[in-house]
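Sequence, please.
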């Protein structure tokens, strides 16, 4: 995830002192300007702040659980009120547009569409990767993505990013999932019954729903593809954004919130067993053992900021253009510069 490269030396260079010395000198000459041009890291000012934060499903998120229950928000003097935690990402950003709050966490795939439609906000942190799972009915005989064309796939929430994520994945394989799959909105408690009745061939969902369907019905579903492995596991998904008005009025508040969530993300990644208990406490359908197994199946929790974050947002812009949800009028790198802000620069 780092935006910095790594210098390596060939075996022959290692065996030749003169070459080693000259290579090290050259590396120093290359690195020096980069280090001198680095911006100093902004520091929180220590002021107490009460912030309203829109976050769909915050209670299921290990980073939020750690930040709220292990004192990371408090460490930065933040009193966080979560608003509309049961809403989906679209409803969260609709509420933000109506000035219900100035800070929100939602999927990058949803954020970018709102920003492109002039929502006055900037993305400041990639909080954690996504945990999308595409489950297929075992009796369907489906073993490849192309076999889903013309079939019915259930989605628990039409406004979640699950459909978009898999549509992008399939489009990169030349498959038009947006138009050639029947995406069926379906409440979670009806999905297993629909699969048993062979009314659906698959379901696209994110954890904890995806995990619960897979492990509560192991004879019914198997996971075909997901975001927990490969290069998708290295990408951020949940993203923190801040309104332009809040950034102008109190930029230090955004800095404190970013630092709190970054610290919480690092802690959650290395304390999965403990954070699983925190999540299970707020998710009655998920036992501590199941939450623990779920978190250990998910990728590294790596917060992303700065240039690496901007690069990932540019890639998401490319992908939304690829599936026809953004006009292919602007360069994605330019859009990413427009949509993001590095609040850690002093």
């Amino acid at each position: 995830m780092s935006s910095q490269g790594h210098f390596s030396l060939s075996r022959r260079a290692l065996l030749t002192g003169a070459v080693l010395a000259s290579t090290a000198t050259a590396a120093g000459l290359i690195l020096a300007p980069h280090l001198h041009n680095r911006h100093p890291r902004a520091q929180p000012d220590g002021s107490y702040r009460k912030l309203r934060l829109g976050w769909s499903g915050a209670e299921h998120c290990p980073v939020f659980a750690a930040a709220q229950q292990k004192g990371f928000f408090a460490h930065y003097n933040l009193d966080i009120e979560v608003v509309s935690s049961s809403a989906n990402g679209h409803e969260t950003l609709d509420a933000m547009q109506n000035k219900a709050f100035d800070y929100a966490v939602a999927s990058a795939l949803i954020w970018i569409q709102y920003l492109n439609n002039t929502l006055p906000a900037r993305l400041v942190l990639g909080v954690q990767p996504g945990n999308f799972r595409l489950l297929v009915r075992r009796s369907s005989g489906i073993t490849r993505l192309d076999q889903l064309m013309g079939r019915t796939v259930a989605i628990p929430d039409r406004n979640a990013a699950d459909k978009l994520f898999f549509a992008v994945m399939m489009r990169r394989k030349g498959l038009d999932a947006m138009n050639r799959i029947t995406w069926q909105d379906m409440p979670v408690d009806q999905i297993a019954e629909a699969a048993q009745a062979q009314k659906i061939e698959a379901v696209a969902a994110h954890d904890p729903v995806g995990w619960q369907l897979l492990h509560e019905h192991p004879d019914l579903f198997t996971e075909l593809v997901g975001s927990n492995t490969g290069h998708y596991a290295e990408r951020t998904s949940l993203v923190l954004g801040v309104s332009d008005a809040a950034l102008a009025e109190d930029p230090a508040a955004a800095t404190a919130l970013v630092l709190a969530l970054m610290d919480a993300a690092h802690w959650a990644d290395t304390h999965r067993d403990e954070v699983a208990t925190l999540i299970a406490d707020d998710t009655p359908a998920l036992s501590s053992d199941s939450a623990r197994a779920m978190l250990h199946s998910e990728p590294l929790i790596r917060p992303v900021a700065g240039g690496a974050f901007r690069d990932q947002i540019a890639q998401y812009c490319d992908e939304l253009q690829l599936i026809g949800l953004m006009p292919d009028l602007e360069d994605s790198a330019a859009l990413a510069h427009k949509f993001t802000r590095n609040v850690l620069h002093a």
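Confidence is low (pLDDT under 50) at residues 1-37.
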